[in-house]
Write a structure and sequence with these properties.
By secondary structure, the chain is α/β, with parallel strands linked by helices. It has helices at residues 12-24, 41-58, 70-74, 89-101, 122-138, 151-161, 176-183, 214-223, 225-229, 232-235, 245-254, 262-265, 275-281, 290-308, 331-340, 386-409, 412-420, 428-439, 445-450; strands spanning 3-7, 32-37, 62-67, 79-82, 143-146, 165-168, 190-197, 200-208, 211-212, 257-259, 344-351, 364-371, 376-378. The strands form three sheets. Strands 3-2-1-4-5-6 form a six-stranded parallel sheet, sandwiched between helices. Helix 1 runs parallel beside helix 2 (41-58) and helix 17 (412-420) packs across helix 18.
């Protein structure tokens, strides 16, 4: 019997996928003991009720146990899945509104709306570090599967600071199959590989029936793209960005096709200056626009309302909460491969160790890996275009290092410097005001104490007035 701890189980969207995947894989991990841990007693109770009823209905030999105690969830675990979004969406939206009032359209930080979830990623990084330290004490041989953003910063931090066996997981690479579907290719005849950093991966190999398939992308852009970009399938689905004008612009800029969230997070700032620009490059402005993000939050709210109506007396409609087929999440396939020894190929975030030259050995990169009971073997990475490395991957790595430096040193000046680098920042005082306004929020009190400002104040004895960039 194996024990799996799901940390952040109150998230029904993510937990729904994982529970469904566990049920579909029940024969391979028969008798698995799954602890569902969350800080919300009400939501945890509903998720537990749904998971237990679903396992019973399908005949899956799985045991789901709810707990509010992280220690109870971790003790003796073989696999720990971290999905917790500590700040929560309401706080994130409140912080976004403050940033927008100070001149930062759609808020500070990465272009992916839910990327950091708080000033300097403090709450997420602190929680993840505490979780890993608890694992060293309670389940030192367990695998930590990190899905909660920021995955790049989080996995690299844990890999550097603890002895925990950690791997980052993201379903973004599954967007590749949208490319295959829209191009009209047979999936069984396709071979592919991707490489990069989390939320920043690129199609390094693309073959169809043994031949280079990149010409299919070029031909589609010339003959089919305009029609597709005018279709209802594209125009009314903010999530349908994989074959957007933004994706092909990035392909032309850097020589490789971007996959998944890369289209959102690696696209240049001038694609994101306002809603009109976003609509030009993404369907309905994309998932991170005020249109797309409102749709996403509305869907989550609708699901929460359905959850609130689930009672022990009324059997739920399982299809409303659990996918009917295995999801694109790599967590359960990873667990199955480690437990059964049956090899599988998964795109994972692992230590670089020479996979991508130019990046440090201890930074976690996202590449395909062969996973079995004995090992996790990353596939070799084809050389990346120098322009891509210099203008995208190295700047993204450097931003990660700055985030971790600010977090580990408790350095508020570094937070301000990071905001000051934003193209929308017009003055030093604007950057200071943004950081201080966010740290002043009640839920950021701990971060405010952690990030220490300069004792002499922000002007450092310089002349009075705004210190403008120019």
């Amino acid at each position: 019997m194996i024990k799996i701890a799901l940390i952040g189980a109150g998230s029904i969207v993510f937990s729904g996928r994982l529970v469904s995947d566990l049920v579909h894989a029940a024969k391979a991990i028969r008798g698995a003991y799954v602890t569902l841990m969350d800080v919300s007693k009400e939501r945890l109770a509903v998720v537990h009720r749904l998971a237990t009823a679903y396992a019973k209905k399908t005949g899956a030999s799985l045991t789901f146990v709810p707990t509010l105690s992280r220690e109870e969830a971790l003790r003796g675990a073989d696999f720990v899945i971290h999905t917790a979004f500590v700040p929560g969406y309401q706080r994130m939206e409140a912080e976004r509104a403050i940033a927008e009032r100070l001149g930062y359209y759609r808020g500070l930080g990465d272009r992916v709306s839910d990327y950091y979830g708080g000033i300097g990623a403090y709450a997420q990084l602190r929680f993840l570090l505490e979780l890993a330290e608890d694992m060293e004490r309670l389940c030192p041989n367990a695998w930590l599967l990190v899905s909660a953003n920021p995955v790049l910063e989080g996995t690299t931090l844990i890999g550097r600071r603890t002895s925990v066996r950690v791997v980052g997981m993201c379903h973004g690479s599954a967007k590749f199959w949208d490319v295959v579907r829209i191009l009209g290719l047979r999936p069984e005849s396709v071979e592919f590989s991707v490489a990069g950093l989390n939320h920043c991966i690129w199609l390094t190999r693309f073959c169809y029936e043994g031949e280079d398939a990149y010409p299919f992308l070029d031909q589609w852009l010339q003959t089919e793209a305009t029609r597709f970009w005018q279709s209802e399938e594209y125009l009314f689905n903010p999530q349908n960005y994989q074959m957007s004008p933004a994706a092909f612009a990035l392909y032309r800029m850097f020589g490789l096709f971007p996959i998944g969230d890369t289209v959102r997070s690696a696209s240049p700032w001038w694609f994101h200056v306002d809603l009109a620009a976003k609509k030009k490059w993404f369907p309905a402005g994309g998932v991170d626009s005020e249109i797309g993000w409102t749709c996403r939050l509305s869907e989550n709210l609708s699901l929460l309302r359905k959850l609130a109506r689930v009672t022990p007396e009324e059997p739920p409609f399982f299809h409303e909460f659990f996918p009917t087929a295995p999801s694109a999440e790599p967590h359960v396939p990873f667990i199955v491969a480690r437990v059964t020894g049956k090899p599988t190929r998964l795109v994972l975030n692992v230590r670089n160790e020479g996979l991508i030259p130019g990046l440090p050995e201890d930074v976690f990169v996202e590449v395909p890996c062969r996973v079995d009971a004995a090992s996790i073997e990353p596939e070799p990475v084809d050389p990346l275009p120098r322009r891509l490395l210099l203008y995208v991957l190295l700047p993204r790595w450097l931003r990660m290092e700055r985030v971790l430096q600010a977090f580990e040193d408790g350095d508020r000046t570094s937070l301000v410097l990071e905001v000051a680098e934003d193209h929308r920042t017009q003055s030093w005082n604007q950057a200071v005001q943004a950081v201080e306004a966010l740290l002043a929020l009640p839920w950021n009190e701990e971060a405010r104490r952690h990030y220490r400002g300069p004792e002499q104040g922000w002007n450092w004895g310089l002349p009075e007035g705004d210190l403008r960039k120019d």
